[in-house]
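Input record, target 12 of the design panel.
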């Protein structure tokens, strides 16, 4: 079953309302070690009060009976560097979405080399590709050829599709994966989950905080800027989600016992709120969501949110503003800048509760 619930919101907010000044040196270029040593800014939804901590302090802010919902999607090493078969000229592919058996929609740089029928070689011939179609938006459809499944080959020769604001090379591909990542399908990491370690997960379980899993495959549309002046005119990209029965049951039991449901990341949040919007309750299902959450939206499931610090004027800071309140959010971001927090994918975290 597929679904595309829509969100309501405040019709009078402009994109520029979500701008804030960010010095470039605060954009984290490398992940922190160990994972849970990133900082944690805790924000009180009711008062806007802020507390400075570290991610390893997370248990101090949670209660027995709470449930964390995490996104277990695994990032595909979707960036390929190769050469044109006939000329040897360099080429870069970015795999966006699987269209069929070894057939993918891709972004190509430089595009002029990738006309219909052009052939390319990657990893000394481990993988080959032929352009079978050129789409209206400039994306291509490529038919790949390799021995067996394409996924092990991508793990071997593909690079992580890091966001454009990260210019440092990633030495360990696993640092752009959560420790619980399983089904492959994301073009970007659900970054709020990058802060968890096995040791921290153990402490959460020991204090009777439950962990539930959903899957939402993050698309590159996550990074698409909002170009509309009025935020209500922005159209969200669609992403595939799966909410299993055991997670639906866990959320229901958590609510019944008075526990809090805390989404780890905007992707977990969007999945839960999409399902509740569509069905009026949380139930096992899968589908597609293009829900756009911004101030004025009434949350149906969430009691808390763990998230990183997001780009100015992005749909993600709009979602945070819907949950924490616009004034509280902008004040929290100003405080994070003042206190030299690290921003974006490899940056620090925020707990809103």
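The sequence produced for target 12 reads:
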């Amino acid at each position: 079953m597929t679904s595309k619930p829509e969100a309501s919101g405040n019709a009078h907010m402009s994109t520029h309302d979500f701008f804030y000044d960010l010095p470039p040196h605060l954009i984290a270029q490398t992940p922190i070690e160990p994972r849970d040593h990133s900082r944690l800014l805790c924000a009180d939804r009711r008062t806007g009060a802020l507390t400075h901590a570290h991610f390893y302090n997370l248990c101090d802010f949670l209660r027995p009976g709470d449930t964390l919902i995490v996104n277990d999607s695994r990032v595909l090493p979707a960036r390929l560097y190769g050469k044109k078969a006939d000329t040897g000229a360099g080429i870069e592919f970015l795999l966006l979405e699987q269209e069929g058996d070894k057939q993918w929609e891709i972004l190509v740089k430089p595009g002029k080399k990738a006309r219909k029928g052009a052939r390319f070689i990657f990893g000394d011939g481990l993988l080959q590709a032929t352009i079978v179609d050129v789409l209206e938006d400039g994306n291509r459809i490529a038919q790949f050829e390799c021995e067996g499944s394409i996924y092990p080959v991508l793990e071997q020769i593909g690079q992580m599709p890091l966001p454009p604001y990260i210019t440092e090379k990633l030495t360990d591909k696993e640092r752009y994966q959560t420790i619980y990542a399983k089904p492959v399908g994301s073009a970007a990491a659900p970054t709020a989950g990058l802060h968890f370690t096995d040791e921290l997960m153990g402490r959460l379980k020991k204090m009777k905080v439950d962990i539930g899993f959903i899957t939402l495959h993050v698309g590159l549309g996550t990074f698409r800027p909002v170009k509309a002046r009025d935020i209500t005119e922005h159209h969200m990209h669609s992403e595939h989600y799966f909410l299993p029965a055991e997670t639906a049951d866990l959320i229901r039991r958590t609510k019944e016992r008075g526990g809090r449901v805390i989404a780890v990341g905007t992707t977990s949040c969007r999945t839960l709120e999409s399902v509740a919007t569509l069905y009026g309750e949380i139930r096992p299902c899968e589908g597609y969501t293009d829900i756009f959450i911004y101030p004025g939206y009434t949350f149906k499931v969430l009691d808390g949110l763990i998230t990183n610090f997001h780009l100015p004027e992005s749909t993600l800071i709009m979602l945070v503003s819907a949950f924490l309140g616009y004034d509280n959010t902008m004040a929290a971001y100003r405080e994070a800048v003042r206190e030299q927090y690290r921003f974006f994918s490899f940056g620090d975290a925020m707990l809103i509760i």
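Helices lie at 150-157, 198-206, 245-256, 266-279, 315-324, 326-338.
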